[in-house]
Design brief:
78% of the residues lie in helices and 0% in strands. It is a multi-pass membrane protein.
């Protein structure tokens, strides 16, 4: 039923979009109808150049997510477990977290350059925070009685971490990863568009909008990016339900 409702909503949106353009309320050159856009998508899927752009964006996203997880999960476990360290770093964390990643593009371009490293670095910066704060939140929500009971039986700290803390934190950490995955994809494509990368969906959209003014190609690239984001989120959500079906807190914390 969920799939049917989703498809019904999408179909209704596309029909309204098509009608608005066909009735002449919006110029087709400014907003091509979905029939034209999806025809372009079909053509692009067989184009080698566009395939390279999609692969470049997805690869940068995968690298950014791997780096974010490696950095944020251990840091979150440490900050969530050591109170004095969490309080000592609170000011710098709260200073850095609200800074928009796109505002750092000029600085990153100067320091790192305009290659793939730029979009990966900005995606890592943006996606670290949801994982970090969900992990800290999870550690704070662990029942102290469970930890004290394990200690009273002489359980070493490493065993407590693996058998008590991590099982409780895992669903929350996974929710942070799912949230960060969408943010990382947005930053990768946005940086490609704003910084003018050599490859990527954002670069394809930039070229289509600036050089040829092809709105059908712009919307086709945008739809492909949206579909990628949907598939990533849907896949991770389904994986989370399978891995943590025993957990009543389905969504975890928010960043």
């Amino acid at each position: 039923m969920r799939v049917v409702r989703n498809l019904t909503g999408v179909l209704g949106f596309l029909l309204i979009w098509e009608a608005i353009v066909r009735f002449g309320w919006v110029a087709q050159t400014d907003l091509p109808p979905p029939t034209v856009v999806f025809a372009r998508i079909g053509e692009l899927l067989g184009d080698t150049g566009f395939t390279r752009d999609v692969v470049a964006s997805v690869l940068a996203w995968l690298i950014a997510m791997a780096i974010s997880i490696v950095l944020a999960v251990p840091a979150g476990l440490m900050l969530g477990s050591v109170r004095w360290l969490r309080e000592a770093t609170r000011a710098i964390v709260e200073f850095l977290r609200p800074i928009p990643s796109v505002a750092l593009i000029p600085l990153v371009l100067i320091v790192i350059g305009g290659g793939p490293e730029a979009k990966i670095s900005l995606a890592v910066y943006a996606s670290v925070w949801p994982i970090l704060f969900n992990t800290i939140y999870a550690m704070a929500e662990v029942d102290p009685l469970l930890v004290e009971t394990a200690r009273s039986y002489g359980t070493p700290p490493s065993r407590i971490l693996g058998s008590v803390l991590l099982p409780h934190a895992a669903p929350f950490v996974f929710t942070g990863i799912r949230m960060a995955s969408a943010i990382a994809l947005i930053l990768v494509i946005s940086t490609e568009f704003l910084a003018g990368a050599k490859l990527g969906i954002g670069q394809f959209v930039l070229e289509a909008s600036s050089s040829s003014n092809r709105m059908d190609l712009v919307l086709a690239g945008t739809v492909v990016a949206g579909v990628l984001g949907f598939l990533v989120n849907e896949g991770l959500e389904r994986l989370g339900r399978r891995l943590f079906h025993w957990n009543s807190t389905d969504e975890g914390a928010t960043a």
